[in-house]
Design goal:
- By secondary structure, the protein is mostly helical.
- It has one domain.
- It is about 40% helix and about 10% strand.
- Strands 1-2 form a two-stranded antiparallel sheet.
- The longest helix is centred in the first third of the chain and has 17 residues.
Length: about 45
């Protein structure tokens, strides 16, 4: 299935913004390796 790159980039930006708003994406800079997901709630 073909997806234009600009749509994929827009989707990625939206997803990262949404995860950041929810407190699930922590990033110190724009480096891919520095991005990580963090659990908001401790699961025992």
């Amino acid at each position: 299935m073909f997806m234009p790159q600009h749509l994929l980039r827009a989707n990625k930006q939206w997803l990262e913004r949404r995860l950041r708003d929810l407190g699930l994406l922590a990033g110190v800079n724009d480096a891919e390796s520095m991005r990580q997901l963090r659990a908001q709630v401790d699961v025992a």
